[in-house]
Amino acid sequence: MDLSTPRGIFTSVALLLLGALLTFLATKYWKHRDAEDLAVRQKAAAHDAVVNRLVEVERQLALVGQAVLPISTAFQAILIKELTHMHTPRMDELLAKIGPPSTLTEKEETELADGLAQRAMDMGDMISASERDAALILPLVIKRAKAESAALALGDPTTLRLVTVSPAGEEKHTDK
Question: Model pTM greater than 0.85?
Fold first, then answer.
């Protein structure tokens, strides 16, 4: 190309401008494409984070559901442990069926109540005062635990409240 003629100069400038325009368009295209890819990756990462958090919350909720035990049911378990002895196999068998869930029949419940009443009165020095008290209290706690289980099964949130007990001297107050 001859740059000494106006036609040569015009052709050179036109080719230079055409090259600059093509470079500009290619850069704009690739930059826009990268921005779209970045946006898609960010949305996918945010979605994955939400899904992972949801899975974690569901896992924690399952653990809480297993850990939360109505107070009467927990107290019932303590009393059963205190009343279980190897030298009373039938009573131990009935105590094991209390549950939760309770698998006692009505006849077995009556037999258990009679056995507990007998244990509280007739065993004299063979059992401690604490065990005697446990034998007297357990039938009442069984009724209460059944009521709590029924309320939980119905999903009635107004009947049951979660209560936490902290060690003495560690009071925590929350104002809402």
Answer: no
Distance CA 100, CA 76 (A): 10
Q: How many helices (H) and strands (E) does the chain have?
A: 5, 0
C-alpha distances (whole Å) from 170 to each of 71, 166, 175 are: 21, 6, 16
Find out whether 98 and 142 touch, Cβ atoms under 8 Å. yes
CB 134 within 8 Å of CB 79: yes
- Biggest CA–CA distance in the chain, Å, is 130
Residue extents of the structural domains in the chain: 1-68, 71-154
pLDDT tens, position by position, 135-174: 889 888 888 888 877 777 776 555 545 556 666 655 555 5
Distances (CA, A) of 48 to 37, 39, 125: 16, 14, 66
